[in-house]
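Why do we care about 3D structure at all? Because function follows from shape, and shape follows, mostly, from sequence. That is the central idea of this module. The next example makes it concrete: a single protein chain, its amino acid sequence, and then its structure expressed as tokens.
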Amino acid sequence: MRHRRDRSGDSHPADRCTDEQIVAWILAQPAPVVACYEAGPTGFGLARALLAAGVRCEVVAPSKLERPAGDKVKTDRRDAERLARLLRIGELPAVRVPTEAEEAARDLVRAREDCRTDLMRARHRLSKLLLLQGLVWEHTAWTGAHTDWLRSHRFERRGVQLAFDEALDTVFSVHARRDRLDAAITEMAAADPALAGPVGRLCCLRGVSTLTATGLCVEVADWHRFTGATIGAYLGLVPSEFSSGQRRVQAGITKTGNAHARRLLVEAAWHHRRPLRASRPRARRADGQPAVVRARAEAGNRRLHQRWCRLEQRNKRPTVSVVAVARELAGWCWSLATLDQHAAAA
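And the structure:
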């Protein structure tokens, strides 16, 4: 979908095309017809409409499209012609089109991620406002005692008091919004049959709660697209490389793919640094899972902790070790998510 823009940057309403109009125009072309477009903020509605009409449609990943170094002219017409040529020879890097249910679950999880970011920023603003007044909390922050300490403050100057009240109210309101989203995600994970199985199995791993498991499942969507060796590359957890001839140079991780899933895995990987002990929350999450699932998760927990120990013995920095463990944790998550349900129930 393209809009004509004037010099002010505003699109003309008369030039907007709906999905139905685009589908009707494509169906009017001489058969056979194949369509493609770059993934963007308009989503996958057009692709679903074309597929429903019997037209093959590929949604292209813009970050995977290579452009010649000498090509310094970029226009919509040239881009469309280039996409058409690549589509004809089958060289387009297409992305998977999620179902409407998968996209709805992803929207909910990403709304919670946005809320988490808002809460972190609201807390930072409040703490920096207090720091300007010479007030610093020396103990663990954002506990009950910390909340009581925040509520006890009164300032003589009205401007400072109003700014403090607004900042404190923002923290409380965003925190309540995050709790509502957490409850909604937990309810969705339990009610959706497509999520309940993989989420329940992933929760047997250390550091993987229901929220983390649900976030991984909705972001990856179809675990069967990958293997234990390729899931790390999809999430950007493999080293970047610049090699030629006999010279091989590896640098930091690529950080490509899904940033949300990568952050969840890195946060979960920190839990494997501590020695493996019995955990009541993890035991409750594993309750009801088949023995083969619990055994595989226990093997993964032991393996990941051993990985941490070997990296520390090699004097690796914790920030390097946690990424290596997160990459291996992604493989264990894939192993549990793709575990055959019939075999697991046996």
